[in-house]
Amino acid sequence: xxxxxxxxEQPARKHIWRWGYWGLLVAILTGSxxxxxxWWSNFRAYRPEFSTxxxxxxxxxxxxxxxxxxxxxVLESPMDGAVHYPFGVEPVRVAKGEVVAEVLSxxxxxxxxxxxSGYFIPxxxxxxxxxxxxxxxxxxxxxxxxxxxxxxxxxxxxxxxxAIGKLVPQPQELRAIAYIEMDESVRRQIGKGVxxxxxxxxxxxxxxxxxxxxxxxxxxxxxxxxxxxxxxxFSRNKKIEFFHGEKKGVVxxxxxxLQKAGAMGVYAFASGKLEYRSVVxxxxxxxxFLVTNGLKAGDLVLSRASAGAERKVLLW
Length: 316
Description:
The protein is α+β, with helices and mostly antiparallel strands. It is built from 3 helices and 23 strands.
């Protein structure tokens, strides 16, 4: 006679079937994920990410610390008192005859005017009258370092005949002395009497060459710079970058480069497969690399060289 499940046995069987169902579902999902992961790995192996070698031309620059030269005159207080600067304590362009300072003492007031148009600088660096072309130009020694501008404070008490600031007449030519590394490009520029430069990363400009001391691998140059902004008198030294020549090549992400046997190289796509090629070049800002030898514009290379190997690949 067939045995009928009791009321206690029926819930137990349902519980077993439920766990069996969920176990089977988990096994199916796990197997599906593993199969997809294997397929995707195989797909990526045969269809890796590529980068295209893009043409790029850069101008080579060499930094140099320069010495700046200009004419200036120190303005003195006509009496004892507290100095007031109508234009504030920042450098400012003034016209001839304009009031640049007032010295106050009780009910008395003395006015200091600009003797000519120019930049009024309410401060000194201590090198006024001591910084000259005749002292700096001779020889091939290291260029001197300037001092920081010490600005005056509004309301400072000054004695008669004491400095309250200085005037840098305008217009005038801003001159510079600097050392520059010599190569064929620089010699050609010197031969033409002008040289391409930039100050602190600003746009390239051309300076007129006034004189040159050629010391072989380097030269000492005396220049006239094309502009003289009001911010210049803050410092008598400036970093100048001189442009040498052009360097042409193709640019890639740095991740496409791999060091192998002491040399740099890439995995390039050719005839349906990846092949390792040695390249020559230099790093660029922004995680890029300029290849000057070993690749041409339009070449496809593996974007991540660390995952590369010489093998067959598919583009699509």
